[in-house]
Amino acid sequence: MSIHPRFNLTLPLLGVSALALCGTATAGFVDDSRASLELRNFYMNRDFRHSGGDEKQDEWAQGFLLRFESGYTDTSIGVGFDAYAALGVKLDSARGRSGDNGIFPQSTDGTPADEFSHLRGTAKFKLSRSVLRIGSMFPTLPVLFYNYGRLLPSSYSGSLLTMEEVDGLTLHAGRFTHSAQRNSSSSDRISYYRGGVESDHLDLIGGSYQLGENLTASYYYGELDDIYRQHFAGLVHSWPLSENLLLRTDLRYFKSRDDGTARVGRIDNDTFNGMLSLSAGSHKFSGAYQQVSGDGEFPFIGQDPYVVNLSFHGTFTREEMKSWQLRYDYDFTALGVPGLTFTTRYVNGYDALVDGRKQGKEWERNNELFYTVQSGPLKNVQVQLRNITFRSGGGLTRDVDENRIMVGYTLPLW
What is the pLDDT of residues 59-100, one digit of tens each? Predict the structure, then answer.
């Protein structure tokens, strides 16, 4: 599948910069622009309980993320430009305490960098209700999802066309060739999650359609060249049972097959997952089931597969694995503490294929408190506390206790 030919990002970005500096047609470019500075202080501690691994990982860092989004020029094809600059600074870390946390880049001997940074941009072109973006992006699509679970976000580079010409219908088509990991200053060839096997590009096409007020259906196709191709179908339905009761159903199905030279081996599996949630006032109760059937693990790019049992530590996407989840959310507004929420969940995975037998098992327990300050000099400061316990068995050997603390604030510049 080929959506469009390879391109050079330099010329489009230079062209947008030139347009932004000339003529009254660029009034919207400036007047509709906005910029913000996001600060994120992040601490992470891992205590490994299995033998043969690191005993402990412990890191503390400060992140800065400057975002700029322009408006569009008042021309037949509106032109705009987005940019972001990111900086991560080490506050406390050392060789032997860094490991695979994914916070800092590391030297060959495992020493974490004192700091790392990157600067990226995106040209954008608008016609009617369709926008073509060329450059660096943060996609949130079933076949490609960025991650912001550490100090700085990951991103992907390429082109993406988004069309919303028909009410209720959103279409996407794109090609991505490079990715920047959440702990890297460089932009590398897009690669497969397991083992980091590089590919020339990922092509994707698909969209979602709102069938009714409470029902949305979606379909996407993604193809990671010479590695895998993947179909996705999803259905989300919300059913108001009463004034204070809402039942939400989220069904997802993936059909994945190896592609071309199959550089990571045979992939021939189907993955079904679904979640049912009942919201009752300040309470929300959820249950989920996920199953990978066939040859190979569920294939995805980056750290976040679009599956319902994705958790803070595990993905539960191993070959032949089945998993279920119970989750509870509470909003403390009802108790007079607006801005404070609590989440707890338990995910249990079993029957993963290990050494030729369906014996692998994993479970994870998460607890999270999230608070946004509502008033005063610290208004909009966010504090997030996460506690994670992960255990495995049946030939799988990763056991870890983990704590994360994040304090964040976004300052609008204009």
Answer: 999 999 999 999 999 999 999 999 999 999 999 998 888 877
Paired tokens of 46: 């891992």
347, with CB counted inside 10 A (0-12, 13-18, 19+), is buried
* Residue found under tokens 């369906």: 358
Query: Which distant-in-sequence residues (6+ apart) come within 8 Å of 288 by Cβ?
Result: 273, 274, 275, 276, 308, 309, 324, 325, 327
Helix (H, G, I), strand (E, B) or coil at 149: coil
Residue with tokens 């028909």: 166
Give the DSSP letter string of 167-182: TTEEEEEEEEEEEE-T
Q: How far is CA 6 from CA 133, 175, 202, 203, 221, in A?
A: 14, 9, 12, 11, 19
Structure tokens at 186: 């460089």
CB 154 within 8 A of CB 303: yes
Q: Are 28 and 72 in contact (CB under 8 A)?
A: yes
DSSP state of 298: P
- Confirm if 386 and 367 have CB atoms less than 8 A apart: yes
What is the pLDDT at residue 196?
77
User: In whole angstroms, what is the distance from residue 48 CA to residue 53 CA?
Assistant: 7
Give the integer Cα–Cα distance in Å for 327 and 413.
Answer: 38
Question: Can you read off the two tokens belonging to residue 329?
Answer: 């959310």
**Cβ 306 vs Cβ 145: under 8 Å:** yes
Distances (CA, A) of 355 to 36, 82, 349, 395, 396: 50, 48, 17, 8, 10
Tokens of 53: 């691994």
Which positions ≥6 away from 144 have C-beta within 8 Å?
156, 176, 202, 204, 222, 301, 302
Per DSSP, 263 falls in state: T
Flag residues of the chain having pLDDT under 70. 1-24, 52-54
**d(Cα 28, Cα 5) in Å, to the nearest integer?**
31
Residue whose pair of structure tokens reads 């992960």 in the numeric block: 390
In angstroms, the CA 227 to CA 233 distance is 20
Name residues whose C-beta falls within 8 Å of residue 294's C-beta, 6 or more positions apart in sequence: 268, 269, 270, 320
Residue owning tokens 């608070």 = 371
First to last CA, the chain: 42
Burial class (CB in 10 A: 0-12, 13-18, 19+), 251: middle
Beta carbons of 42 and 64 less than 8 angstroms apart:
no
Three-state secondary-structure class, residue 26: helix
